[in-house]
Design a protein that fits this description.
The complex is a heterotrimer of chains A (about 325), B (about 325) and C (about 350). Chain A has a domain of about 160 residues: Rossmann fold, CATH 3.40.50. Chain A is about 30% helix and about 25% strand. Chain A is built from 11 helices and 12 strands. In chain A, the strands form 2 sheets. In chain A, strands 6-7-8-3-9-10-12-11 form an 8-stranded mixed β-sheet, with helices on both faces. A 4-stranded antiparallel β-sheet of chain A has the order 2-1-4-5. In chain A, helix 3 runs parallel beside helix 5, helix 4 crosses helix 5 and helix 5 packs parallel to helix 6. Chain A is globular, with a radius of gyration of 21 Å. The mean pLDDT of chain A is about 90. By secondary structure, chain B is α/β, with parallel strands linked by helices. Chain B has one domain: 3-Layer(aba) Sandwich (Rossmann fold). In chain B, about 35% of the residues lie in helices and about 25% in strands. Chain B has an 8-stranded mixed β-sheet with strand order 6-7-8-3-9-10-12-11, sandwiched between helices. The longest helix of chain B is centred in the middle third of the chain and has 17 residues. Chain C is mostly helical. Chain C has one domain: Orthogonal Bundle (MetI-like fold), CATH 1.10.3720.10. Chain C is about 70% helix and about 0% strand. Chain C has 15 helices and no strands. In chain C, helix 6 packs parallel to helix 9, helix 6 runs parallel beside helix 14 and helix 12 packs antiparallel against helix 14. The radius of gyration of chain C is 24 Å and the shape is flat. Classes of the chains: A alpha/beta (about 325), B alpha/beta (about 325), C mainly alpha (about 350). Chains B and C meet through strand 4 of B and helix 15 of C.
Chain lengths: ~325, ~325, ~350
Amino acid sequence: MTPSAREAPLVRVENLSVYFNAGRAGFWGQKQLRVHAVEGLGFDIFPGETLGLVGESGSGKSTTGRAILGRVPVSEGRIFFRGEEISHADREKNRQLSKHMQLVFQDPYASLNPRMKIVDIVAEPLLVHGRVKRPKEAVETVSRLLERVGLPPDALDRYPHAFSGGQRQRVGIARAIALKPEFIVADEPVSALDVSIRAQVVNLLQDLQAEFGIAYLFIAHDLAVVRHISHRIAIMYAGKIVELAPRALIYDRPVHPYTQALLSAVPVPDPPVQRARKRIIYAGEPPNPLEPPPGCRFQSRCPFVDRHCVQNAPPLTEREAGQWAACWNC
Amino acid sequence: MTAAPEAPLLEVEDLRVYFYTRAGVVQGARGVSFSVHQGETLGIVGESGSGKSVSVQAVMGLIHAPGCIEGGDIRYKGRSLLDTAGRKTQRIVRGKEISMIFQDPMTSLNPVFTVGTQITEVLRHHLNMDWTEAHRRAKELLELVDINAPEKRLKQYPHELSGGMRQRVMIAISLACEPQLLIADEPTTALDVTVQAQILELLTDLQQRLNVSVILITHDLGIVAQLCHRVAVMYAGRIIEVGTADEIFANPIHPYTRGLLNATPRLDVVTERMVSIEGVPPNLISPPRGCAFSPRCAKADNACDKAQSLTDIGENRQVCCWREASK
Amino acid sequence: MVVAVLQYGFLPLALPAFSSESLLDKDMVQSAKDKQNPAVESHEWLGKLKELGQELNRDKAGLIGVVLITALVLMAFFAPTISPHDPTEQDLTARLAPPVWYEKGSWNHLLGTDHLGRDVLSRSIHGSRVSLLVGAAVVLLAGGFGVVMGLIAGYLGGRTDAFIMRWIDTQVAFPGLLLALIILAVIGPSLTTVVIVLSLNGWMVFGRMTRGAVLAVRQTPYVEAAEIVGCRWPRVIFRHILPNLTSPLLTLAILEFARIVLAEAALSFLGLGIQPPATSWGLDVAVGKNYMFMAWWLVTIPGSAIAVTVLAINLVASWLRLISDPQEREKQFARHMASKLRRHMKLETRKEPVSS
């Protein structure tokens, strides 16, 4: 379902920066160290679409998702939801917003309270927001939800440890959709699952999107998984977006050298093809998040780097229709 | 890529490893047999619970209570590694001639010792080198695994290095005594994709330069495609298909192998929806006597409930499925 | 609200799935182990009991502890019925009579009498009431308050956390005995004083431990999920965090119980606690100390009672810590199986398994 670009965005992020305090340096403790987790981020998510957010560890992708949900404080920039600014919402406002935006976690083994039954876990959002007075009243709704995500009805009275990783992830999804939110942040929902059952969860999310029109921010480190569910994909490196494009363009005609390296790094399960591939492997390390360089963050690894790149950070500029990249030399 | 000589370097025969837990006896490995020849890379592919890690831990003598090797044999260069009489030689063999790289480089290195200490420890223990010689060799090893400024790195602690560097250090430690067999248990699973690519390049390079045999455990078929000569696919504690890498990928025979290949997304092929294998792996506390995959197999019938065995169906090709084997 | 919070707060403390084990009837433990008992099999509760009975069987030390504690509790409960004499009854004709195995001893006074002719056995039996009562009361009061403080400090963080922690630090630094004397001067010595003093001195350790555990649990995804779903902080604390703290808290509570028993004995020994004619083991030791060389049993019997009680509590605490940690439980099972296997294999002379 391709979203209409003329519709108003559901979630808008403008110039978002998130810094974390990381202690003090200097003999007198005069310098405050800050981790630049995310810097100058800007993107839109339209109703019913999926934006894939891809990056490696330290790229700031999880922080972005948490910032939109109000879990980490916004240092600079603004976040809008349905046109309303929510960047500095207080606790109570965030509680109200939780009816409209939810999170699916990465670790299915740790995201369900081991001492609660499945019915209690899934009924909790309904209970907390006053849809039901007591858990008993929610049993019917919960049964329907569990059925929708493909779990057997007798799962109600059991505890999480009786279920496999894939099934637990479904419980997490049932909990997230209980209040029919418009937006869900899926933080690496299949990374911890076996390959043969990843598809079950991804397909479920796709079906739910088709049925309820939920918009997703699908965070992942694996470009192969993100492909099926995303309409547009944003690539993050060291806290910045380096490329943002519709799905087809990212895989067929990647612009930014990092995107090309990322695509090249995923091995293809086909020996003759894989051995024959020209692999792009950049040496070097990501920049220190405490002291990022003033220019392009990819400079320590980029083969096309020049003096201009070292000093000046490239902005995201539109190359083709809908394809944005942040690079001076490509 | 290399011709396999007659006698295999490592031979595992009908290995059974059981874990005695309160919930019951978990049969981690139920009759695993494979062999590795000189200079070849064998990939053992499987998902969680397939028994791949357990099998190689048995080779390295890492099975402790509540696990127990209940049956079978492991022979290295013809000599059994499970014989209690030869404990002393086994300690020499393991670590010196057979070495292992583990999955998580964050926790595999001791955080309170420098990198240099950890490498030289192996050298001094197994090869009886003195300090200067060990130090020189450690530097050589770091250069071998493409770590720049080796002198400086030797004095650093693990927490000062990135994940990719730590894994390189682990590889350096495992190569210190010039082993004949290197076991790599999911060496890149905990690393970022671009770092994984670097490590895979390194492993390919080392594979070609040193004539070391490698057993590579992984669940990622892409890595197998790049590095392995032969592949063994495991499911529910048993090996269900063996063959050369080219053949297994081009022509998978066992329904599980086919399902796994279908479920692995490829960047060069566009599909509308992802494909999965329905169902979940069986409980290893009371595994079925017949084919463990039959509940999830589209072509299963009553004959699948009888005990299956790994049968030869061609040169270097084995499969554990009566229907496919009879074709 | 405070009452509700306190009530709800230590409800999980008092009734987690297996805590009732230590306060069980000896008969129930027996019937759980007795396979012939056609218990209501489908009842989850009873199934757990059976499992616990099997665990106990494996850990002999824990078994001894549980048996002793049960015996003590029964003894305390039925004290008036089973003690041969009234503990305050004086019989000046039979002063300082020795225990029964001496020449001058008699079956009337099995363990002898003290300087006022009161039966030592009866006094010891009644003394257990005081010890157990004080222990339970202090653990509940101090534990309840300390746990709630720790939960709030750990979860809310920031200034609240800093304030509560500094309060704890200050109170810990204050000498306990001095506090006892001050309160004593105000209220006067009695059972209530003992409970108040020990509670005031005892809640800090619960607070600190709970806060530490909360800090760890707070990071887990399921707590974050509860917050994202929209739970307010009281619900997060009491519904999500607290139930997952029951294992370490229970162990701490039991160990504190032992310490309180000793502390009560010490206070009574110093004359700051239970006053005569009431009985307490500590008090008996204090009084008996004057006659130590003439009538050793006056000191030894109550003293042994204290020792046995504390030992039993510690054994039970060790066992509980073992079974509440799933990994430790598996390891113990594995050791049990390994020794069984070794015995089995010595009979069969097979190859030894490669498990070092």
